[in-house]
């Protein structure tokens, strides 16, 4: 286990802040927990669910209104989709954003802002499509 006493002073202070910043519910070094802190509570009116599961399909972060899922993955080229998952995503018109964990750890706020911006645009497009308006 890495401890703050084995780190250079500047990094040690940061390590201490990160370790003490959580309230016990989150691991600040876990990119999933870090991103969830930004997506929970319906930011910008968008309701994200964590670890959404339906019909044998699990999505790490999912906004049904935007038909958008976000997943943190080390290898975006890894073929993780099963036929069942692909069929579910297609049936529900869900696109999946794949995000490297290093991006979340580096700047979770920026990553969440990007997700929320994309989700907002998708909500508007799906609302326009439902009302019969053409997309811009």
Automatic annotation (TrEMBL):
Residues 30-117 form the DUF559 domain. This is DUF559 domain-containing protein. It comes from Qipengyuania marisflavi.
